[in-house]
Amino acid sequence: MRPDNPARTGIERDPLVEFVLKDAEANVLCPATKLWNTGHGANVMREAVSLMGGYGITEDCPGFLAGKWMDAQLEATYEGPEAVQRRQLTITMTSEVFLAQFRAWTAAMRRIASTNPGSGACTLASAMQMWLWTLNHLQKATDAAGNKLYHGQRQGVTFPMADALCWLLASRCQILDVLELERRGASDPAVADSLTGTVQFLSDLCHVQAAQAAGEVGRICAELVFGYNRHPAWDDEGISCCFSACELAEYEETMPGISAFATDVLSVDGRHPRKAGPCAGCAGAESFMQLQNKLSRCLSGSRLAKDRAAQTVSAVMIPEALDYPLRASSASRAAVSTQLPRRRAT
Ligand SMILES: Cc1cc2nc3c(=O)[nH]c(=O)nc-3n(C[C@H](O)[C@H](O)[C@H](O)COP(=O)(O)OP(=O)(O)OC[C@H]3O[C@@H](n4cnc5c(N)ncnc54)[C@H](O)[C@@H]3O)c2cc1C
Question: Is the CB of 194 within 6 Å of ligand 1?
């Protein structure tokens, strides 16, 4: 039983209930872990290679980054490639038992945020709320042609929702890990001395990650909520929703300031602004807009956390001794390269 999950109190002592809860959780966490860790790992490895410039692609680069990049892609492929994990998530993440736990996790993140405000837990809770709202919406909504949005064969909808969930779960696990370190670190001689600084640094990283997760979830959800609606055009239907300049001038006399709310105004001779069509509305998705607005404001402080974490990293000492073996060919090339001017790490 995790202390952060209020859904598991009392009744969870029943072994059958405990099994059902754990089964629902594992059916999501197992594919999510395989999918997100390997995929994100491969993306991060590409960035690590890129940091070193052309040197990063060579075998001489310390850490064999290019080899690890390929290894990461291998991990993403075997034992079930990404699409297979997404397919499984598509089914398991809509289980009522899992969703009940997900709601409890969201509430727990808010509570964690009240004691650890710099951890990004509040940002994450807002993103979790948005994901859940979007899932409920997609299960009822249809596209512009009246076709159901959320069903097994429509991977353009279900797969991105699975990806978005993985961002949330990864960030949640990271926050819970740091809380565990904070709780128990003092009794571990390996970290006890520097516990306060370590927890602060890792909390900043949590905040950065939560902000990135929130950004990904916000983007994915907005695309799915609005992307299947037809964009209004300058046809009779679209124009009928616009104000005309004369009409607006008349309204302005009785309702001063109304012009500020008119997004699309047709000129006296009937010409419309030069753009794709009248701006799309948000009928049925007003609560989504509120969540989106809130989520953007929840990102406050995340870049300050990133600056702090970067400052900390710049003060870390990297040991001279390599912690990995050199291969024979690289070792001999490294021996030669010591006679060359040292490459500046820029
Ligand atoms: C280094 C390495 C070691 C391996 N070792 C073993 C081993 O020991 N034993 C063993 O049995 N196998 C092994 N494999 C094979 C591995 O399990 C398969 O490569 C993997 O399951 C992907 O199958 P595939 O290559 O046929 O690709 P495919 O299944 O053809 O996939 C191709 C693409 O289609 C996507 N896709 C697949 N199914 C769907 C779907 N239903 N809907 C949407 N998209 C889909 C995939 O995500 C992928 O992008 C190994 C592979 C590697 C790279």
Answer: no
